[in-house]
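Researcher: Here's a chain I'd like modeled. Treat it as a single chain, no partners, no ligands.
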Amino acid sequence: MELMQVIFGLEQLKTKSNIQVFTDSRHVFDGITKDWAEK
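Model: Modeled as a single isolated chain. Structure tokens:
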């Protein structure tokens, strides 16, 4: 669920943007750092 919230937030961006994601969730951290966006 937490990872889906990050994905939803990114989908709301209207233009290419530099962002920072702050999390204390291991699930979100692993999802971002293990190239989930490429899959």
